[in-house]
Design goal:
Layout (H helix, E strand, L loop, with lengths): L20 H21 L5 E9 L8 E6 L38 H21 L10 H28 L1 H13 L21 H23 L4 H39 L12 H17 L7 H9 L20 E7 L5 E7 L4 H26 L24 E2 L5 E2 L1 H7 L7 H10 L30 E3 L1
Antiparallel strand pairs: 1-2, 1-7, 3-4, 5-6
Helix pairs in contact: 1-3, 1-4, 2-3, 2-4, 3-4, 3-6, 5-6, 5-7, 5-9, 6-9
The structure holds fe (ii) ion (2 copies).
């Protein structure tokens, strides 16, 4: 049962932590480690307080509270969506059975692994973004960065809660490891490649929140279907917070494109770098990079592990209950990306179960098209001919069928030498990155904004753009 959260408690929660002293003590002893991680690996810009959303409940109405808080005093809490007493497992061999409230012994290590991999990405992104505050284009953007950071911190709490509550000593050890691995570390890097890349500038941040955080949304969507009910309910609530992260990415890129389009039309040139903007071809290169590394996060086109997870009920499909099939998939098939016998980029048919990574990546790709459409509407509205687009799935891949080959954004295979010679046409070069970084000068004055980005259409929680979202020290 969920209970009303108690904000007088050390760890706000709706899981009746007070009723389980052992668990409460375990989490209370993890909490100082989390805080010292936050102090040493979290945002570096000193602030007095930030206008932040804090999760205080899970109900349809009023689940969050807004107010200025010192970030160190942010109330990272544990919130699971309401338990649905009628819920049934929606797929796999246990379809139709009641979901599990405890971890079945035979799935213990797989479930722990899935939770650890998800949990590892949450603090990783905070680490990747830690220096961005120093170059924020406005107080509004600075606030959004910190909002994303504290919520990723809360998502770590969510995963650590599951590890502590359901996986015994091994779970507690994994929870410690989640604070010991660090993004980009030589000795103990984060588990997934994209989470070891730095986020050095705000264009990268917006692309990251659009493309890479969106991968997280899709992974959470599959875990929300899990037969392990506490995991399902945890992810369901995390998805609520993710919606804001997606908004930050979508509208962030909107505003960069809008500003670039303004500069292009008012000066009648594509060469907006000299006018303090980010050229459209540089935006396209950043898009190409972030999209292609995010496609890698979905893993290989085929996976027997993922097939087994599905059959066992550990991890479902995106919007499983909207699929019109038997939800077991034992006799279905799917087309997946592959190289054909001549080494040409193509597709091949495999059993649907082993192709589930491809299914999820397909859903993700469709979603990403939505962003490109809206950015192109901005260009069209400005009367410009140029358009942005998603590169081909074979472009710049390090994982899966196309990892061993090189291809253009149009999906034409290239010899390695030609790729080396031409990749600067499609991926950010040192010159591009240096230009983007040169624009990253902080605008920390209320109501002001950097010249390379347009102001947002709306503020946060009904506040105007010129609201004092952040008080610096
Ligand atoms: Fe997250
Ligand atoms: Fe996120």
């Amino acid at each position: 049962m969920t209970s009303a959260p108690d904000y007088a408690e050390k760890i706000p929660n709706n899981v009746d932590l007070a009723g389980d002293r052992r668990l409460q003590r375990a989490l209370e002893s993890w909490q100082p480690n989390f805080l010292s991680w936050w102090e040493s690996m979290g945002p570096t810009l000193p602030t007095r307080d930030v206008y932040l959303r804090t999760a205080v409940n899970v109900g349809r109405e009023g689940w969050a509270h807004f107010g200025h808080v010192a970030m160190r005093d942010y109330r990272w809490g544990i919130f699971l969506a309401e338990r649905d007493p009628d819920r049934r497992i929606g797929f796999g061999e246990h379809r139709g059975e009641p979901p599990w409230q405890k971890v079945p012994g035979e799935y213990r290590s797989e479930l722990r692994r899935l939770i650890v991999i998800q949990g590892d990405t949450e603090p990783a992104s905070v680490e990747q973004q830690r220096n961005l505050g120093a170059t924020a284009p406005s107080l509004y953007d600075l606030r959004n960065l910190f909002q994303v950071n504290v919520e990723e911190g809360r998502h770590l709490w969510a995963m650590v809660y599951l590890l502590h509550a359901y996986f015994g000593r091994e779970g507690r050890e994994e929870a410690e490891e989640l604070l010991h691995r660090n993004s980009g570390s030589q000795d103990a890097p984060r588990i997934l490649g994209a989470f070891n890349e730095e986020t050095p500038d705000w264009l990268s941040f917006f692309m990251f929140t659009y493309f890479t955080d969106r991968d997280g949304k899709y992974q959470l969507g599959t875990l929300k279907e899990s037969a392990f009910d506490p995991l399902s309910r945890t992810c369901e609530f995390m998805l609520k917070e993710e919606a804001h992260h997606m908004m930050v990415g979508t509208t962030g890129v909107d505003r960069v494109v809008e500003r670039t389009a303004q500069l292009m039309t008012s000066h009648d040139t594509d060469e907006v770098a000299a006018r303090g903007g980010i050229p459209l071809d540089v935006i396209q290169k950043y898009l190409n990079f972030h999209y292609s590394v995010s496609l890698d996060l979905f893993g290989g086109e085929t996976s027997t592990n993922v097939a087994n997870y599905y059959t066992a009920g550990l991890k479902g499909r995106w919007l499983e209950d909207r699929r019109r099939d038997d939800h077991r998939l034992t006799s279905d098939s799917i087309m997946v990306d592959a190289l054909d016998e001549d080494g040409q980029i193509g597709q091949t048919e495999v059993a649907a179960l082993v192709g589930l990574n491809t299914d999820l990546r397909g859903e993700y790709i469709n979603d990403c098209q939505g962003g490109v459409k809206r950015w192109n509407r901005i260009l069209e509205g400005a009367g410009l001919e140029s358009r942005l687009r998603l590169p081909h799935v074979a472009f710049n891949r390090k994982v899966g069928a196309f990892a061993g080959i090189e291809a253009t954004p149009d999906g034409e295979r290239l010899p390695a030498q030609e790729w080396e010679r031409r990749k600067g046409e499609w991926l950010p070069t040192e010159v591009d990155k240096t230009h983007v970084r040169s624009l990253m000068r902080p605008v920390h004055e209320r109501g002001k904004i950097a010249a390379w980005i347009a102001p947002p259409r709306n503020g946060i929680n009904g506040k105007p753009f010129d609201y004092e979202y952040v008080h610096l020290t």
